[in-house]
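Before the break, one more example. Copy the sequence into your notebook; we will annotate it together after we see the structure.
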Amino acid sequence: MADEAAGTGALHGSVVLPNRAGLHARPAVKLTQLAKTFSSRIDFALDPDGPWIDAKSPVKVMRAKASQGSTLYFRTLGPDAGPALKALLDLAGSGFGEE
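Here is what the structure looks like once it is written out:
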């Protein structure tokens, strides 16, 4: 699911985390590596209202400790926000290629 936040220019989307181990070290690194390929600001949260976490910081992403079934909320803002949001939703929705 993706939509534009009213008036902010930021794009928002969410996905349920399917992988059994949740957002541990390996998927956290995959998420941050992918996020760093985009110039847009990319944040994620475990609640639609935040707190928002910099998706380009491996330490901050791992600290989130999202478990299987958690909803990951993404927020992107910048010139490649649309492709960034789609790529992150696809990666997380696929279980980070671990299943």
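Residues 48 and 72 are 9 Å apart (CA to CA). Strands lie at 2-4, 11-16, 41-45, 53-54, 71-77. Try to locate both features in your own notes.
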